[in-house]
Amino acid sequence: MKEGVFLRRNKKKWEAIEQETRNVSSVHPDRLGEIFIELCDDLSYARTHHSNSPIAKYLNTLTARIHQTIYKQQNIRFSQIAQFWTRDVPLVMVSVRKQMLVSFVIFAISCAIGVISTLNDKAGEYEFARGILGDAYVEMTLQNIKEGKPMAVYENKESIPMFLAIAYNNIRVAFMSFAWGGFASILGVYAFFFLSIGSAYILFVNGVMVGTFQTLFYKENLLWESASVIWLHGTIEIWSIVLAGGAGIVMGNSIFFPKTYSRRESFRRGAEKAGKIMLSLLPFITLAAFIESFVTRYADMHVILKLLIILGSLALVVFYFVIYPFIVEKREEMRKEQEKIELPSVELNR
Fold first, then answer.
1. Is 194 within the bounds of a domain?
2. CA atoms within 13 Å, Cβ hemisphere of 242
3. What is the tens place of the pLDDT at every residue in 224-260?
4. Cα(179)–Cα(238) distance, rounded to whole angstroms?
5. Would the CA dihedral through 227, 228, 230, 232 be positive or negative?
6. Are 62 and 111 within one domain?
7. How far, in Å, CA of 152 to CA of 148, rounded?
8. pTM for this prediction
9. Quick one: 339 exposed, middle or buried, by C-beta within 10 A (0-12, 13-18, 19+)?
10. Residues 109 and 211 occupy one common structural domain
Protein backbone atom coordinates (compact mmCIF):
# COMPACT_ATOMS: atom_id res chain seq x y z
CA MET A 1 0.00 0.00 0.00
CA LYS A 2 1.38 3.40 -1.02
CA GLU A 3 2.01 5.98 1.67
CA GLY A 4 -0.73 8.31 0.41
CA VAL A 5 -3.35 5.56 0.36
CA PHE A 6 -2.31 4.41 3.84
CA LEU A 7 -2.66 7.98 5.10
CA ARG A 8 -6.08 8.56 3.49
CA ARG A 9 -7.49 5.29 4.87
CA ASN A 10 -6.44 5.95 8.44
CA LYS A 11 -6.18 9.73 8.85
CA LYS A 12 -9.69 10.20 10.28
CA LYS A 13 -9.20 7.29 12.69
CA TRP A 14 -5.92 8.69 14.00
CA GLU A 15 -7.39 12.17 14.37
CA ALA A 16 -10.33 10.71 16.30
CA ILE A 17 -7.96 8.76 18.56
CA GLU A 18 -5.84 11.86 19.12
CA GLN A 19 -8.94 13.82 20.06
CA GLU A 20 -10.27 11.03 22.30
CA THR A 21 -6.98 10.67 24.13
CA ARG A 22 -6.27 14.37 24.53
CA ASN A 23 -7.10 13.86 28.21
CA VAL A 24 -5.76 10.32 28.26
CA SER A 25 -6.24 9.75 32.01
CA SER A 26 -10.02 10.00 31.58
CA VAL A 27 -10.22 7.17 29.02
CA HIS A 28 -11.46 3.82 30.34
CA PRO A 29 -8.58 1.31 30.67
CA ASP A 30 -10.33 -1.24 28.41
CA ARG A 31 -10.79 1.35 25.68
CA LEU A 32 -7.20 2.47 26.15
CA GLY A 33 -6.06 -1.10 25.56
CA GLU A 34 -8.07 -1.34 22.34
CA ILE A 35 -6.58 1.92 21.06
CA PHE A 36 -3.07 0.80 21.93
CA ILE A 37 -3.48 -2.47 19.97
CA GLU A 38 -4.84 -0.60 16.93
CA LEU A 39 -1.99 1.90 16.96
CA CYS A 40 0.60 -0.86 17.39
CA ASP A 41 -0.75 -2.57 14.26
CA ASP A 42 -0.61 0.65 12.25
CA LEU A 43 2.83 1.55 13.60
CA SER A 44 4.15 -1.91 12.72
CA TYR A 45 2.91 -1.51 9.14
CA ALA A 46 4.33 2.00 8.86
CA ARG A 47 7.75 0.94 10.15
CA THR A 48 7.82 -1.99 7.72
CA HIS A 49 6.75 -0.15 4.55
CA HIS A 50 7.35 3.55 5.27
CA SER A 51 10.00 3.60 7.98
CA ASN A 52 11.36 7.08 7.19
CA SER A 53 8.03 8.80 6.60
CA PRO A 54 6.40 11.40 8.93
CA ILE A 55 3.53 8.94 9.41
CA ALA A 56 5.79 6.45 11.24
CA LYS A 57 7.14 9.21 13.48
CA TYR A 58 3.62 10.50 14.19
CA LEU A 59 2.31 7.02 15.05
CA ASN A 60 5.35 6.29 17.20
CA THR A 61 4.76 9.45 19.27
CA LEU A 62 1.03 8.77 19.67
CA THR A 63 1.56 5.10 20.58
CA ALA A 64 4.32 5.94 23.07
CA ARG A 65 2.01 8.36 24.88
CA ILE A 66 -0.69 5.71 25.22
CA HIS A 67 1.87 3.12 26.35
CA GLN A 68 3.23 5.41 29.08
CA THR A 69 -0.27 6.00 30.40
CA ILE A 70 -1.10 2.27 30.51
CA TYR A 71 2.19 1.47 32.25
CA LYS A 72 1.64 4.26 34.76
CA GLN A 73 -1.87 2.99 35.54
CA GLN A 74 -0.52 -0.53 36.09
CA ASN A 75 2.08 0.79 38.51
CA ILE A 76 -0.64 2.69 40.37
CA ARG A 77 -2.73 -0.48 40.68
CA PHE A 78 0.21 -2.48 42.06
CA SER A 79 1.09 0.30 44.50
CA GLN A 80 -2.53 0.48 45.63
CA ILE A 81 -2.54 -3.26 46.33
CA ALA A 82 0.70 -2.98 48.28
CA GLN A 83 -0.63 0.04 50.18
CA PHE A 84 -3.78 -1.89 51.12
CA TRP A 85 -1.75 -4.57 52.91
CA THR A 86 1.04 -2.41 54.30
CA ARG A 87 -0.90 0.71 55.32
CA ASP A 88 -4.70 0.63 54.93
CA VAL A 89 -5.46 -2.56 56.87
CA PRO A 90 -2.99 -1.84 59.72
CA LEU A 91 -4.38 1.68 60.21
CA VAL A 92 -7.92 0.31 60.25
CA MET A 93 -6.90 -2.24 62.89
CA VAL A 94 -5.50 0.53 65.08
CA SER A 95 -8.68 2.57 64.78
CA VAL A 96 -10.94 -0.38 65.78
CA ARG A 97 -8.82 -1.95 68.51
CA LYS A 98 -11.57 -1.42 71.13
CA GLN A 99 -14.12 -3.32 69.05
CA MET A 100 -11.59 -6.09 68.46
CA LEU A 101 -10.96 -6.33 72.19
CA VAL A 102 -14.71 -6.63 72.78
CA SER A 103 -14.88 -9.40 70.19
CA PHE A 104 -11.99 -11.26 71.83
CA VAL A 105 -13.54 -10.92 75.31
CA ILE A 106 -16.91 -12.24 74.09
CA PHE A 107 -15.21 -15.23 72.48
CA ALA A 108 -13.02 -15.91 75.54
CA ILE A 109 -15.99 -15.78 77.94
CA SER A 110 -18.09 -18.07 75.74
CA CYS A 111 -15.14 -20.45 75.42
CA ALA A 112 -14.86 -20.52 79.22
CA ILE A 113 -18.58 -21.30 79.44
CA GLY A 114 -18.05 -24.28 77.15
CA VAL A 115 -15.11 -25.48 79.25
CA ILE A 116 -16.89 -25.17 82.61
CA SER A 117 -20.12 -26.70 81.37
CA THR A 118 -18.34 -29.70 79.81
CA LEU A 119 -16.26 -30.21 82.96
CA ASN A 120 -19.53 -30.48 84.91
CA ASP A 121 -20.95 -33.06 82.48
CA LYS A 122 -21.44 -36.50 83.97
CA ALA A 123 -18.56 -38.82 83.13
CA GLY A 124 -19.14 -40.68 79.88
CA GLU A 125 -22.53 -39.04 79.17
CA TYR A 126 -21.52 -35.60 77.87
CA GLU A 127 -25.06 -34.20 77.81
CA PHE A 128 -23.89 -30.62 77.38
CA ALA A 129 -21.36 -31.58 74.70
CA ARG A 130 -24.03 -33.49 72.78
CA GLY A 131 -26.31 -30.47 72.91
CA ILE A 132 -23.58 -28.22 71.50
CA LEU A 133 -21.71 -30.50 69.09
CA GLY A 134 -24.48 -32.95 68.25
CA ASP A 135 -24.96 -36.61 69.20
CA ALA A 136 -23.47 -37.94 65.97
CA TYR A 137 -20.27 -35.94 66.27
CA VAL A 138 -19.72 -36.80 69.94
CA GLU A 139 -20.37 -40.50 69.26
CA MET A 140 -17.97 -40.47 66.32
CA THR A 141 -15.28 -38.77 68.43
CA LEU A 142 -15.69 -41.20 71.33
CA GLN A 143 -15.56 -44.15 68.93
CA ASN A 144 -12.35 -42.80 67.36
CA ILE A 145 -10.86 -42.44 70.84
CA LYS A 146 -11.73 -46.06 71.69
CA GLU A 147 -10.05 -47.20 68.48
CA GLY A 148 -6.89 -45.29 69.39
CA LYS A 149 -7.32 -42.72 66.59
CA PRO A 150 -8.78 -39.62 68.28
CA MET A 151 -7.89 -37.39 65.31
CA ALA A 152 -9.20 -39.76 62.64
CA VAL A 153 -11.78 -37.18 61.57
CA TYR A 154 -8.98 -35.33 59.78
CA GLU A 155 -7.67 -38.43 58.01
CA ASN A 156 -10.77 -39.89 56.39
CA LYS A 157 -11.22 -37.48 53.49
CA GLU A 158 -9.25 -36.64 50.36
CA SER A 159 -7.17 -33.49 50.72
CA ILE A 160 -8.43 -31.34 47.83
CA PRO A 161 -12.21 -31.84 48.33
CA MET A 162 -11.64 -31.39 52.06
CA PHE A 163 -9.72 -28.15 51.43
CA LEU A 164 -12.49 -26.71 49.25
CA ALA A 165 -15.22 -27.66 51.73
CA ILE A 166 -13.33 -26.30 54.73
CA ALA A 167 -12.35 -23.07 52.98
CA TYR A 168 -15.98 -22.49 51.99
CA ASN A 169 -17.23 -23.25 55.50
CA ASN A 170 -14.63 -21.03 57.20
CA ILE A 171 -15.37 -18.12 54.89
CA ARG A 172 -19.12 -18.63 55.43
CA VAL A 173 -18.74 -18.61 59.23
CA ALA A 174 -16.48 -15.55 59.14
CA PHE A 175 -18.85 -13.62 56.90
CA MET A 176 -21.86 -14.64 59.01
CA SER A 177 -20.06 -13.28 62.06
CA PHE A 178 -19.37 -10.08 60.13
CA ALA A 179 -22.67 -9.62 58.30
CA TRP A 180 -24.97 -10.35 61.23
CA GLY A 181 -23.38 -7.49 63.15
CA GLY A 182 -24.56 -4.96 60.62
CA PHE A 183 -27.86 -6.73 59.87
CA ALA A 184 -28.88 -7.08 63.51
CA SER A 185 -27.86 -3.50 64.15
CA ILE A 186 -30.05 -2.19 61.35
CA LEU A 187 -33.06 -4.20 62.54
CA GLY A 188 -32.51 -3.51 66.21
CA VAL A 189 -31.12 0.00 66.26
CA TYR A 190 -33.68 1.10 68.85
CA ALA A 191 -34.23 -2.18 70.69
CA PHE A 192 -30.56 -3.17 71.10
CA PHE A 193 -28.51 -0.06 71.60
CA PHE A 194 -25.31 -1.27 73.23
CA LEU A 195 -24.16 -4.35 71.32
CA SER A 196 -23.99 -5.59 67.75
CA ILE A 197 -26.09 -8.58 68.71
CA GLY A 198 -25.63 -10.64 65.55
CA SER A 199 -21.83 -10.75 65.67
CA ALA A 200 -21.84 -11.29 69.44
CA TYR A 201 -24.16 -14.28 69.01
CA ILE A 202 -21.98 -15.92 66.31
CA LEU A 203 -18.88 -15.35 68.46
CA PHE A 204 -20.67 -16.82 71.48
CA VAL A 205 -21.77 -19.97 69.65
CA ASN A 206 -18.32 -20.61 68.17
CA GLY A 207 -16.60 -19.90 71.48
CA VAL A 208 -18.79 -22.38 73.36
CA MET A 209 -18.15 -24.99 70.66
CA VAL A 210 -14.37 -24.56 70.87
CA GLY A 211 -14.37 -24.75 74.67
CA THR A 212 -16.65 -27.78 74.65
CA PHE A 213 -14.71 -29.64 71.98
CA GLN A 214 -11.33 -29.12 73.60
CA THR A 215 -12.60 -30.01 77.09
CA LEU A 216 -14.16 -33.24 75.82
CA PHE A 217 -10.66 -34.42 74.89
CA TYR A 218 -9.31 -33.19 78.22
CA LYS A 219 -11.82 -35.39 80.09
CA GLU A 220 -10.66 -38.30 77.97
CA ASN A 221 -7.03 -37.59 79.01
CA LEU A 222 -6.14 -36.47 75.49
CA LEU A 223 -5.65 -32.74 75.98
CA TRP A 224 -2.13 -32.51 74.54
CA GLU A 225 -2.76 -35.02 71.75
CA SER A 226 -5.84 -33.11 70.63
CA ALA A 227 -4.54 -29.55 71.16
CA SER A 228 -1.30 -30.24 69.28
CA VAL A 229 -3.36 -31.29 66.26
CA ILE A 230 -6.46 -29.08 66.42
CA TRP A 231 -4.48 -25.87 66.85
CA LEU A 232 -2.34 -26.56 63.80
CA HIS A 233 -5.12 -25.00 61.77
CA GLY A 234 -7.24 -23.68 64.63
CA THR A 235 -4.80 -20.91 65.54
CA ILE A 236 -5.45 -18.96 62.34
CA GLU A 237 -9.04 -20.17 62.01
CA ILE A 238 -10.12 -18.96 65.47
CA TRP A 239 -8.31 -15.65 65.10
CA SER A 240 -10.12 -15.12 61.80
CA ILE A 241 -13.51 -15.72 63.42
CA VAL A 242 -12.69 -13.31 66.26
CA LEU A 243 -11.51 -10.62 63.83
CA ALA A 244 -14.55 -11.14 61.61
CA GLY A 245 -16.78 -10.75 64.66
CA GLY A 246 -14.92 -7.55 65.52
CA ALA A 247 -15.53 -6.30 61.98
CA GLY A 248 -19.25 -6.97 62.44
CA ILE A 249 -19.23 -5.01 65.70
CA VAL A 250 -17.45 -2.14 63.93
CA MET A 251 -20.18 -2.01 61.30
CA GLY A 252 -22.96 -2.33 63.85
CA ASN A 253 -21.56 0.32 66.17
CA SER A 254 -21.21 2.73 63.27
CA ILE A 255 -25.03 2.90 63.33
CA PHE A 256 -25.34 2.92 67.10
CA PHE A 257 -22.73 5.62 67.69
CA PRO A 258 -22.56 7.97 64.66
CA LYS A 259 -20.81 10.71 66.70
CA THR A 260 -20.70 13.89 64.60
CA TYR A 261 -21.73 12.11 61.38
CA SER A 262 -25.17 11.30 60.06
CA ARG A 263 -26.11 7.65 60.56
CA ARG A 264 -25.80 7.01 56.84
CA GLU A 265 -22.29 8.52 56.64
CA SER A 266 -21.22 6.81 59.85
CA PHE A 267 -22.46 3.46 58.53
CA ARG A 268 -20.64 4.01 55.23
CA ARG A 269 -17.39 4.66 57.07
CA GLY A 270 -17.90 1.69 59.38
CA ALA A 271 -18.76 -0.62 56.49
CA GLU A 272 -15.63 0.50 54.62
CA LYS A 273 -13.41 -0.29 57.60
CA ALA A 274 -15.12 -3.62 58.23
CA GLY A 275 -14.91 -4.52 54.54
CA LYS A 276 -11.15 -3.96 54.51
CA ILE A 277 -10.76 -6.23 57.54
CA MET A 278 -12.84 -8.97 55.93
CA LEU A 279 -10.88 -8.74 52.67
CA SER A 280 -7.62 -9.02 54.59
CA LEU A 281 -8.88 -12.18 56.32
CA LEU A 282 -9.48 -14.16 53.12
CA PRO A 283 -5.83 -15.28 52.65
CA PHE A 284 -5.62 -16.27 56.33
CA ILE A 285 -8.87 -18.26 56.18
CA THR A 286 -7.64 -20.01 53.03
CA LEU A 287 -4.30 -20.77 54.71
CA ALA A 288 -6.10 -22.30 57.72
CA ALA A 289 -8.15 -24.49 55.37
CA PHE A 290 -4.98 -25.58 53.57
CA ILE A 291 -3.28 -26.56 56.84
CA GLU A 292 -6.36 -28.47 58.02
CA SER A 293 -6.68 -30.36 54.75
CA PHE A 294 -3.04 -31.12 53.92
CA VAL A 295 -1.14 -30.91 57.24
CA THR A 296 -3.45 -31.68 60.19
CA ARG A 297 -4.12 -35.19 58.88
CA TYR A 298 -0.54 -36.12 59.81
CA ALA A 299 -1.30 -36.23 63.53
CA ASP A 300 1.78 -38.32 64.27
CA MET A 301 4.27 -35.74 63.01
CA HIS A 302 7.11 -34.75 65.35
CA VAL A 303 6.13 -32.46 68.22
CA ILE A 304 8.73 -29.86 67.22
CA LEU A 305 7.15 -29.55 63.77
CA LYS A 306 3.72 -29.16 65.36
CA LEU A 307 4.96 -26.42 67.67
CA LEU A 308 6.66 -24.62 64.77
CA ILE A 309 3.40 -24.53 62.81
CA ILE A 310 1.24 -23.50 65.78
CA LEU A 311 3.64 -20.85 67.12
CA GLY A 312 4.43 -19.65 63.59
CA SER A 313 0.72 -19.22 62.86
CA LEU A 314 0.22 -17.39 66.15
CA ALA A 315 3.19 -15.11 65.46
CA LEU A 316 1.87 -14.35 61.97
CA VAL A 317 -1.60 -13.23 63.03
CA VAL A 318 -0.44 -11.42 66.19
CA PHE A 319 2.26 -9.53 64.33
CA TYR A 320 0.11 -8.50 61.35
CA PHE A 321 -3.12 -7.69 63.18
CA VAL A 322 -1.79 -6.48 66.56
CA ILE A 323 1.86 -5.39 66.51
CA TYR A 324 2.38 -4.17 62.94
CA PRO A 325 -0.61 -1.74 63.06
CA PHE A 326 1.05 0.16 65.91
CA ILE A 327 4.31 0.30 63.94
CA VAL A 328 2.44 1.76 60.96
CA GLU A 329 0.57 4.21 63.20
CA LYS A 330 3.86 5.45 64.68
CA ARG A 331 5.33 5.76 61.18
CA GLU A 332 2.32 7.80 60.04
CA GLU A 333 2.61 10.11 63.03
CA MET A 334 6.29 10.71 62.26
CA ARG A 335 5.49 11.39 58.61
CA LYS A 336 2.81 13.93 59.53
CA GLU A 337 5.20 15.65 61.91
CA GLN A 338 7.77 15.96 59.13
CA GLU A 339 5.17 17.37 56.75
CA LYS A 340 4.12 20.13 59.12
CA ILE A 341 4.99 23.54 57.79
CA GLU A 342 6.52 25.84 60.37
CA LEU A 343 5.24 29.35 59.96
CA PRO A 344 8.05 31.94 60.07
CA SER A 345 7.87 34.44 62.87
CA VAL A 346 6.99 37.92 61.66
CA GLU A 347 7.91 41.12 63.47
CA LEU A 348 5.26 43.80 63.11
CA ASN A 349 6.56 47.25 62.38
CA ARG A 350 5.07 49.69 64.76
1. yes
2. 27
3. 988 998 899 999 999 998 998 888 888 878 877 787 7
4. 17
5. positive
6. no
7. 9
8. 0.69
9. exposed
10. yes
Q: Tally the domains of the chain.
A: 2
User: Do 165 and 232 share a domain, yes or no?
Assistant: yes
CA distances to 18, 21, 56 from 44, rounded to whole Å, are 18, 20, 9
Nearest-angstrom CA–CA distance, 350 and 335 = 39
Helix (H) or strand (E) holding 217: helix 197-219
3-state class of 335 per DSSP? helix
Question: If you ran DSSP here, which 8-state letter would residue 88 be given?
Answer: I
Max Cα distance, the chain (Å) = 98
- Spatial contact of 64 and 35, defined as CB atoms under 8 Å apart: no
Cβ pair 240, 203 in contact under 8 A: no
Collect all residues with Cβ–Cβ distance below 8 Å to 33 and sequence separation of at least 6: 70
Mark residue 29 as left, alpha or beta (left: phi above 0; alpha: psi -120 to 50; beta: remaining).
alpha
Does residue 66 sit in the same domain as residue 95? no
Residues 232 and 161 in one domain: yes
Instruction: Name residues whose C-beta falls within 8 Å of residue 92's C-beta, 6 or more positions apart in sequence.
Output: 273, 276, 277
Give the domain-ending residue among 21, 50, 80: 80
Q: Is residue 331 part of a domain?
A: no
Choose the final residue of a domain: 80, 107, 137. Answer: 80
What's the pLDDT tens digit per position in 110-165?
A: 999 999 999 998 766 889 999 998 888 888 888 888 888 877 766 656 666 666 66
Integer Rg of the chain from CA: 30
